Amino acid sequence: MDKPQRTSRGSIGDDAAPGKPDNHDRRAVSQTLDRGLEVIDLVAAAPDGVTVAQLTELLGTPRTNVVRLLNTLASRNYVVQNPDGRYRLGSRPLELARLVQPVVRVIAQKVLQRLADRTGATAHLTAAEGDDAVALLVVEPRTATYHVSYQAGARRPLTRGASGFAILSARPPATAELPEVAAARKRGWAVSHGQIESGTWGAAAPIRHPQHPDLSVGVVYLGEPADPDTATQAVLQAANEIRTQLG
């Protein structure tokens, strides 16, 4: 697992809050809350999870304090502890993220249902969260007997699957870029074969809205669709419709 990196929030032991240099602002900061927020940042930056020992080293604070912070965050579902002892993000951050983008969710819900019914595939709205692609909405088709099923909140690296490829393709080209991302930038949509689950096929397109960056809409099939071109055109139309409705 890649070692989690400290965030730019500043030293945990400092009196100063990040970006708040004067003495009055320093006194106004709650150091306990600041520590808790940095714990959330560090857990979010470790998709494979992070241990108490790693957090203790990164935060530079006693282990007992780290455990107390984790227990508090876990009680409110900001983090969860896996059987292997590592901590990962819980459901609460996702619930808050959903409240941040209510307009997008309302608009996307109807568009995704039409997309799912038209293609007979599971449709999704996905957002970038750090280095992960997180499913904000997942809509199952009413026109198919068999389809892929997964829940909102599911996450995977941006570098695996059409939804992440599409989001990355809307960003400026990177020095070391996946060929799938470069291809998606050129044609306007991304595809993936069996990268999420064996036997699945996915297509996605970026929303490309200036006020709502790092969003993509897509579909995932059990097996390759009979007409991939029709599927990708349906995805492009859905992405354009959401962008247009957002204004």
From TrEMBL:
Segments forming domain HTH iclR-type: 30-91
Pfam families, A to Z: HTH_IclR, IclR_C
Keywords (A to Z) from UniProt: DNA-binding, Transcription, Transcription regulation
UniProt region (Disordered), positions on chain: 1-26
Domain IclR-ED: 85-247
SMART domains named in the record: HTH_ICLR (SM00346)
Protein's recorded name: IclR family transcriptional regulator
Organism: Prauserella oleivorans
Taxonomic classification: Bacteria, Bacillati, Actinomycetota, Actinomycetes, Pseudonocardiales
